[in-house]
Design goal:
Blueprint: E1 12-15, E2 22-25, H1 47-53, E3 59-67, E4 74-82, E5 87-89, H2 97-102, H3 106-112
């Protein structure tokens, strides 16, 4: 579904049908240690870009809203892990190094097709 920022995100949900007024981020709402989600958080959220760059089924994201210095500014911090290998992922845009090593190389695929 499209976020208020205009990006597709699998964790965002809204319902304005027949007078309802419901917007939520299902990723941030699962985190009890995070401040309450606001629609403005979508404008600086990296999750839609991570989901676009990495479509691994084993990728699990954990997001937290962090309040800036003296309460000014908000940002979304994302931590990623691989459920297949049970490891933390340093760069969620790239994904799990072990999962990437298991995938066939594109050069091998092209050479095999000749």
């Amino acid at each position: 579904m499209k976020t208020p920022a205009g990006k597709e995100c699998a964790h965002y949900y809204e319902d304005f049908h027949r007078g309802r007024n419901r917007q939520e981020c299902r990723l941030l709402d699962r985190n009890p240690h995070s401040p309450a989600w606001k629609p403005q958080d979508c404008f600086r959220c990296p999750v839609p870009d991570i989901l676009w760059a990495n479509s691994s089924e084993d990728l699990h994201l954990h997001a937290t809203v962090k309040i800036g210095f003296l309460g000014f500014g908000r940002r979304v911090v994302v931590e990623a892990s691989c459920s297949k290998h049970d490891v933390a992922i340093a760069d969620p845009f790239v994904g799990c190094a072990q999962c990437n090593a298991e995938r066939p190389n594109i050069a091998d695929i092209l050479a095999g097709g000749e």
